[in-house]
Design brief:
449 residues; D-Maltodextrin-Binding Protein, domain 2; 2 domains; seven-stranded mixed sheet; three-stranded antiparallel sheet; 16 strands; Sugar ABC transporter substrate-binding protein; transport; signal; SBP
């Protein structure tokens, strides 16, 4: 299966090298006596993330406790590697933290089995203040099952200013079209940005696509950063109705074939031999000045700002026939329905869903708050760094990919990833369309096994 929710998970789970440390776990019945002042309640808040994000939450909760001196909030960091196994075990036994992060691919079973607080009921007046795409993502059977906390925003093109200017390319309003080449300005731009070891660009005679000195773009088998954005921008559906549709939906199949051709036919991107087993290959090539245009999201902004030793900028992703329709992901904080102090938990949920409660998250510069009124703190942070981050959030203006959750998708994840890797590597016995059809058929069959 495609790399689900790799965006927020990679950075916030510390997959990019920031180790998440477990700092202690308390059950949902924790409370303690304040010194001579009666009962003081501790609400536990579970996340997977790095220390910077935990520190932002702790700053927010310090302000909360000043306004609610009878309630403290303890942030519990659990490593991504065992976060979901531990959460499942804790909730099945009636325990777990009072509030916990969950993503779109794991919340549904807990919602269906009455493990989560229905915030559509308890915080119905606050919902309008939250990012609509996040609210939609976590609304199931007519109810919202958590307070949106973080959003990806849209995807953008990070670009090396020197390489782009040298090629004479304008990235501001590129378009791509799998059916009408005269409408495609994206591929011609990438050809000018791709250079072989002899100094020839991909649009020149004698170009050797097997021996590149500079890559134009980071096309690869990466659903969240690349493939899903092309599928959405072509008006396609990757999955729908509990099944994969990327091969039976003509627009989706066209989009995937277009991306594969960027790698194997036009050679304007790294080979699959480099990217299939290394999701960071293209990012590292960009940071080394060897990749001109790097499509990604907010989760790579801080690293690029810190590590790039060249001038860089941000441009919108190319518009397809349906516009710019990216994959976007978000994280919610879900209330544990088994909490023994529901009132205190409710106050904390209301706080993290407020502008005041979310300002510290955006001010850290490490994430975009899902509370829309607090997003200015994120933009202000990056403005001070000399970066206009607004295009990341503006990237969803045309809409986002409709991508319904597939139950039991993990059962076929490894096999589908392997099949798509083979397609991107050019190792198909027939057409790309036929290979995609075979991969889809096998994946859908695996869902019921």
């Amino acid at each position: 299966m495609r790399q689900q929710s790799r965006t927020l998970a990679r950075v916030l789970a510390g997959v990019a090298g920031l180790a998440a440390l477990a700092v202690g776990v308390s059950g949902c019945s924790s409370s303690s006596s304040a010194d001579g002042s009666g009962e003081k309640t501790t609400v536990s808040f579970r996340i997977w993330s790095d220390d910077a994000v935990a520190a932002a939450y702790e700053k927010s909760f310090d302000s909360f406790t000043k306004a609610n001196p009878d309630i403290t909030v303890k942030v519990n960091q659990i490593p991504w590697a065992n976060y979901w196994d531990k959460l499942r075990t804790d909730l099945s036994s009636g325990g777990g933290d009072d509030i916990f992060w969950t993503n779109a691919y794991n919340f549904a079973p807990y919602a269906d089995n009455a493990k989560l607080v229905n915030v559509s009921s308890t915080l119905k007046n606050e919902v309008v203040a939250w990012e609509p795409s996040a609210v939609k993502q976590y609304t199931r059977k007519g109810s919202l099952w958590g307070v949106p906390q973080l959003i990806d925003g849209g995807k953008v093109l990070y670009f090396n200013k020197d390489l782009v200017e040298k090629a004479g390319v304008d990235l501001d309003d590129l378009t791509w079209d799998p059916e009408h080449s005269n409408n495609d300005t994206f591929l011609p731009a990438l050809k000018k940005l791709t250079i072989d070891s002899a100094g020839r660009t991909a649009d020149q005679a004698g170009f050797d696509g097997s021996n590149l000195a500079q890559y134009g773009f980071n096309a690869s088998n990466d659903f969240d950063a690349i493939v899903g954005n092309f599928v959405g921008s072509n008006g396609g559906l990757y999955q729908s109705g509990g099944k994969y549709t990327f091969a039976s939906n003509a627009k989706a199949e066209q989009a995937i074939e277009y991306v594969v051709n960027l790698v194997d036919k036009y050679h304007v991107a790294p080979s699959a031999a480099d990217t299939n087993g290394n999701g960071d290959f293209a990012r590292d090539q960009f940071l080394q000045g060897k990749l001109a245009v790097f499509e990604s999201g907010s989760y790579n902004l801080a690293l690029i700002q810190k590590s790039a030793k060249f001038g860089w900028g941000i441009a919108p992703i190319p518009a397809g026939p349906a516009g710019r329709i990216p994959v976007t992901n978000s994280i919610i904080a879900a209330g544990n329905a088994a909490s023994t102090h529901a009132d205190a938990t409710q106050k904390v949920l209301r706080w993290i869903g407020s502008e005041k409660g979310s300002l510290a998250l955006g001010a850290s510069g490490s994430l975009i708050p899902a509370v829309t009124a607090a997003q200015g703190s994120y933009f202000d942070y990056w403005k001070k760094q000399g970066v206009d981050a607004k295009p990341i959030v503006d990237g969803v203006a045309d809409g986002t990919l409709k991508n319904d959750i597939i139950p039991n998708a993990t059962a076929t994840s490894a096999d589908l990833t392997s099949a798509l890797n083979e397609i991107f590597a050019g190792r198909t016995t027939g057409s790309i369309a036929a290979a995609l059809k075979a991969a889809q058929t096998a994946a859908n069959a695996g869902l019921t096994e």
